[in-house]
Amino acid sequence: MCSGQKRSEPGRPLVSIITAVRNSEALLEKTILSIVSQRYDNLEYIIIDGASTDGSIEIIRKYPNAIDYWISEPDQGIYEAWNKGLLASNGDWIGFLGAGDTYHKDAIENYINIILKNGEKNLEYISSKSELISGKDKVIRTIGSGWQWKRFKKYMNVAHVGSLHHKSLFQKYGYFDPSYNICGDYEFLLRSRENLIAGYIDKVTTRMRSGGISQNSNQALKEAMRAKIETGKRRKSVCTIEMGIAWVKFQVRSVAHSINDK
């Protein structure tokens, strides 16, 4: 379902934001409203719904002027949904925002300022910081640092939520691998290896809700290890050690989270 095609304009590149959702009635509207409130207005908003059986579709239908394209049908998970969104997108820059995650009002404006300022560098990817919040809307911690291959090949040090990808990345490296359930975004960015031309905004632009699929530590760690070995071409023995270290850090953070959220 589409309300008309948008285009980039001189000095105003079109940004496509894609949200994958399934049965997130309690969270989706907050995400939509964060798109509506953006100061930068050359936006295309796409929602891919995985055949929700709750009230998610009714919420989507409330915002026909804010949502440029949406579809509701069964899918194999978040990365197949993102791929559908990519096929429907027209933007030069593309971002992904989960149901329940939100942009700060100046988020996209900040990204555009960096893009225009560094136009001659032909940036392919831009990330920033994100606040990880609890179910009670308390900030647990701030995540996200600048992309550096030496760090990224070991662990996902960038905050992917809210990051912008130039469309050329998908033309060059293909779409997301739907065989991943959690770490398909990490695997995708590993494909470029040290060749990625990345920018960074040293400020918080998004809030990401804790407890989503990416918080499943065991599966996430196993998928990240698979991506590092298969796509990053790193040794299994080294990746196993890194996975052990990451597991310990996750357990420590989980304990601290439980204490702070009481």
Word description of this protein:
- This protein is of the alpha/beta class and about 260 residues long.
- The protein has helices spanning about 25-35, 55-60, 80-90, 105-115, 150, 165-175, 185-190, 215-230, 235-260, and strands at about 15-20, 45-50, 70, 95, 100-105, 125-135, 140-145, 160-165, 200-210.
- It has a single domain (about 15-210), classed as Spore Coat Polysaccharide Biosynthesis Protein SpsA, Chain A, CATH 3.90.550.10.
**Which CATH first-tier class would you pick?**
Alpha Beta
Q: Note the overall shape.
A: globular
> How many H/I helical runs?
9
Strand portion, in percent? 15-25%
Low-pLDDT ranges: none
Q: Remind me, CATH topology?
A: Spore Coat Polysaccharide Biosynthesis Protein SpsA, Chain A
Average pLDDT across residues? 91
Instruction: State the helical fraction.
Output: 25-40%
Write the layout of secondary structure elements.
Elements: E1 15-21, H1 25-36, E2 43-49, H2 56-61, E3 69-72, H3 78-88, E4 93-96, E5 102-103, H4 107-117, E6 125-133, E7 139-143, H5 149-152, E8 159-166, H6 167-173, H7 184-190, E9 198-209, H8 217-230, H9 236-260
Parallel strand pairs: 1-2, 1-4, 2-3, 6-9
Antiparallel strand pairs: 4-8, 5-9, 6-7, 6-8
Helix pairs in contact: 7-8, 8-9
